[in-house]
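hey so i finally got around to running the thing on that chain from the lab meeting. sorry it took forever, my laptop kept dying and i had to restart like 3 times. anyway pasting the input first so we r on the same page abt which one it is
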Amino acid sequence: MVRWEPGGRERLERAALDLFLEKGYGATTIKDITSRAGLGYRSFFRHFSDKREVLSLQQSELHDVIMGTVRPRDTPVVALVEVFWALHAAAGWLEDRRELASQRQSVVSRSPELLERELVKLAGLVEDLTGVLIDAGAPPRDSRLAAEVGVAVFKVAFAEWTGPAGRKSLVELIEDRFAGLVQLVGQYEAAATESGEDASPTKDRHRDRDQAVTGH
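ok and heres what got predicted. didnt touch it at all, straight out
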């Protein structure tokens, strides 16, 4: 009969994070984790398939929060607005997990293997977010761009939130970084207007480059 272990998953996550920070991810074994947690070796596999999964910290639930926020509307779906509110919801869900998230990022940043895995997961999030936006009625091109931009903004905000100087809430940082994105677009539009109705800030650069290549 399987013995029920109260808080087993949380104990394993806590033990693993502590050990990863103390010994390094590569040097920590599953046996180390279960011993620190005060649990049997086989209990680990009731919760996780391998030690990398310990660092997921309920990422599947976070994924569901993001995807569940985007849905068809009575009015036309604006992709970037949907992405903003999806990430806003994710930030609210993460808020009371700041300490664990900070420790997790510290572990991930020290391991090329984990960093590569993180990039793969973020790419998957872009794909899933793009798909759910299209399903909600947003144009495919807008959906892809909004998903890519939104995930990039989230990465910047999340890095600040989990960093040593982080003081603002993740919700505030998401709002600030999206506002910064709008400001950048406004600066681009202003520069384009100053360059002429059919010009862009890069037009002169392209012309200069072409002249350098052709000699004309």
